[in-house]
Design goal:
Blueprint: H1 15-26, H2 31-36, H3 42-57, H4 73-82, H5 86-102, H6 104-111, H7 114-125, H8 130-135
Helix pairs in contact: 4-5, 4-7, 5-6
């Protein structure tokens, strides 16, 4: 048996992917329309609006002083599970990724329910959208 050496983690960057992520981040998502159509509840809509307000304010904080948004992780994961719109899924994956990069509490919240998280991420990989598959 041949011993396999550990491969160090490497940061991979792609200009097209980064530019597309920036576009996804600012693309308007019709959350009110999803609520009117019954795809999300009014409570989820309210929580999502609170999250978006707090998430946009994170720019004003240094990483060490930023408030934790870990309480919103279950909401984001459940919305990824519920919705099928590619634009909404792209947005939700982008913000979930940003939270995971920025906040250890969000990573712990994701890790606490790995069955559901892995299920929704694999579901995104099955979509016919290259970006969703790569982001998931």
């Amino acid at each position: 048996m041949v011993a396999v050496t550990d491969v160090p983690a490497a940061m991979v960057s792609n200009q097209f992917f980064d530019e597309f992520t920036s576009k996804v981040r600012v693309k308007p998502i019709p959350w009110e329309g999803y609520s009117r159509a019954g795809l999300i509840t009014s409570d989820e809509l309210h929580q999502l609006k609170d999250f978006q307000k707090q998430h946009t304010q994170l720019v004003d904080y240094s990483e060490s002083d930023a408030p934790s948004l870990a309480t919103y992780v279950p909401l984001l994961v459940s919305l990824i599970e519920k919705l099928s719109s590619v634009d909404a899924l792209q947005y939700l994956l982008v913000v979930l990724d940003e939270l995971a990069e920025r906040d250890l509490g969000c990573v712990q919240a994701l890790a606490s329910d790995m069955d559901t998280v892995s299920h929704v991420l694999f579901r995104c990989m099955d979509k016919k959208d290259d970006y969703l598959g790569l982001k998931a």
